[in-house]
Amino acid sequence: MNELSLHILDVCENSIKADANLIEIIVTENIKDNLFKIDIIDNGHGMSELTLSEVSDPFFTTRTTRNVGLGLSLFKMAAEMTDGNMVISSKINEGTTVSTIFDHNHIDRAPLGDIEDTIIILVLNEKDIDIYYKHTYNNEVYVFDTREVKKVLEGIPFTDYTVIEWIKNNIKEGIKTILKEESR
Amino acid sequence: MKSLDDLKKIRDAAQSKVTMRGKNDGMRVLVGMATCGISAGARPVMNKFVEMIAENKIEKVTVTPVGCIGECAIEPIVEVLQGEERTTYCRVDEEVAERIVNEHIIGGKVVLDYVIGKYRL
Q: To pair with B114 at 20 to 30 A between CA atoms, which of A50, A123, A178, A183?
């Protein structure tokens, strides 16, 4: 996977399987501290301590179709390649948090990529989940929250393609704006 | 920036439409979106479907991400469901997605070049 947003999509699929109805994706970039951080926080059914200890092992998976599970292992590797790390914490019936830290200027740090495409796919999921996305670049902040969008939509489904287009553009331009504001 | 006011306009336009897409109404396109699918390129494929269906104003087709169906080696896998009929496509890229929309979803003819039987291991 050559974009961090693909890893985010992958991890969020775990949250959806865990019956989360809210996923928070927090991206924090701080150039001064050379920090690129991604937190994915869900309110799904969580994991036991035993599962938690095994979860980033590539030969651990909960699925039954085959006996490898690479999602978290690949994400962890992507972080460790940049001298970063991954910390997973989880509580049964409360949810799971996956925090990954990267060195911002490391040559092996993959770009975030098309995060709007990731969010669209999460929004189109059959289960009704809310997505909160917060992107901080130094002092500038962009926030996207499906709960706010829902309030405006008054029952019009997200599957309406004009809505999808609006979401895509909102996120794309929102992030572009915070990057531009900072470079002034 | 696309503001909430724009979204309100979209809402009002959508409300005036007579037909609303139901969840399980009509044709369904399922795109495998587990680790195997994502790393093989399922995300741009899914977005291609969404875009093309919007562009062609095709009603009653829903595109949904799903998990792994167990044939990771031939991902990205796309299933097209219509009534009792299920067509499984494999090794789908954006070009193939375009063909599936044009030939299968619009034209009603299965794209035989990419159905799963072609890649029986």
A: A123
Distance CA A129, CA A145 (A): 11
The verdict on a CB contact (< 8 Å) between A63 and B68 is: yes
CB pair distance less than 8 Å for A69 and B21: no
Cβ–Cβ below 8 Å for A66 and B38: no
Q: Decide if B81 touches A, using CB distance below 8 A.
A: no
User: Dihedral of CA B105/A164/A98/A114: which sign?
Assistant: positive
Which residues in A lie closer than 8 A to residue B25 (C-beta atoms)? none
Top-level class of domain B22-119: alpha beta
Q: What is the dihedral of CA B13, B19, B21, B26, to 10 degrees?
A: -150
Taking the complete model, does pTM exceed 0.90, yes or no?
Answer: no
Q: Give the minimum alpha-carbon distance from B111 to chain A in angstroms, rounded to a whole number.
A: 25
Q: Do B43 and A177 touch (CB under 8 A)?
A: no
What domain count does chain A have?
A: 1
Q: Which domain holds residue A54?
A: 4-183
pLDDT reading at A163 higher than 80: yes
CATH number of A162's domain: 3.30.565.10
CB contact under 8 A, B50 and A164: yes
Helix (H, G, I), strand (E, B) or coil at A155: coil
pLDDT tens-digit readout, A129-147: 999 999 999 999 999 999 9
What is the residue-averaged pLDDT of chain A?
89
CA A27 to chain centre: 8
pLDDT at residue B18 is higher than 50: no
Per-residue pLDDT, A65: 59
| Amino acid identity, position B50 | V
